[in-house]
Fold Alpha-carbonic anhydrase domain-containing protein.
Amino acid sequence: MPLLPDTSAPIIFLHFPSTLILLCSTCAVTGGHALLLNGEYPWTYDNDLFGGPDFWGLMHKHWRMCKLGALQSPINIDPTKLIFDPQLGKLRISQIHVEAELWNMGQFPLLTLATKNTTTTETGGGSGGEKREEQKQQQTVLNIAGGPAHPYTYQMQQIVVHFGDVRRGERGSEHTIDRVRFPAELQILAFNSDLYDNFTQAQSQPRGLLGIAIIIDIGDRTNAELHRLSQATKHIKHRNQMVRIKRFQPAALVPPTEHYVTYDGSMTYPGCFETVTWLVFNSPIYISIEDLAQWGELVQSEMAESEAKTETGAPPPVPLSSNYRPLKASNGRALRTNINTRLKSVSDGGQCPSRMYVDMGYRTNPARTDTKVPSSPHSLSRQEKSADARTKREQRQQKRERIPEEEVRMFGMGVTDQMDSDPTESDQMESDQEGEAEDLLPKTGVDHHPNLALNNCVVPSMAFDECSLL
């Protein structure tokens, strides 16, 4: 691979503030940073390079939505903006095994699912006794229906894995929950097989794609099918390498929950077509630290290029990591959910009414203690910026107001060190640096709030699963 562009090729100079970017029609970009999509244009997740997410919309006429679109993904799932939709049913996924191919695409790992199996059979011949071979194609289709997919059926086509710089402990989920980013995210992409013939046709058409976002969190034991994928990465360390996986069951990657959030969005890589109905499950699947480290061994360059770097003493290959797109503004999109917070209280020995209903707002699971992602001005609309600032002011005020001891006993909180921080410490928590998150929620499985007391009766809020995200 040449280190310098061909001087005979046409040269284009693009001027940006304090930046000079050199392009040419036949330039070869070294270092594994900028890679080719369909052999045409280089793109990457590194915003320090021309080809990063901020430049996707400038690189190809069919990628303009990456810059101009108002329904872009990923987004932050704000619990205070969720809308309960009783019409959202259970998602149904085919429980079958298929042949799959795991690729190192140079930008992210991609699992493609085979949908056709060819079988050969021998049959008897005619009067001459000769035998004939007949080939039959047996269609194996992974269908997804129900939930936000209704009334259509979608055919599962591919699975993408996003993660951060594993070696540095960076979190790399694309979607965030209340500004909390998780270690990784697995995205199942399916096309509308009722309206379109294939994924390529559907990706740019209305109601074309269904995206299922599955948050990956750290646990003691890895999800069984995710473990198989993690082990298979040993065979695809370099770009364009592929390994086949037999009898793979994609449905086993789905967490054991019926609860989710859905919204209208886009593909999270070029060309960012706004044709995706996204579904984000409310529970994660788990991966061990050892298995997550396997994904961190992938690199962006091909094997020959990596070997050449080693021989010449050049910098090592660039890891295939931090492969997540920055958050995009929600722009007032409806965030619908099937999580119902309108609950009925239980009887308390006759002391309390047996039927009390309360409309609860949504919030993140207080049992979780995850780090929040700093709010980026590029990913927030004007209304969201104002709401974000207002929320921070309210949270600081709540921390200054101690819960009376009698109310603490009533709700059985036991300790209130979460609420006892000094006001000066609250002001210091305004820092937007990642890793300095505001931990204002009580570490318990039930939402305790003094305003929910009615006639000295405890009105339960949403019953949190210890693993749920909301």
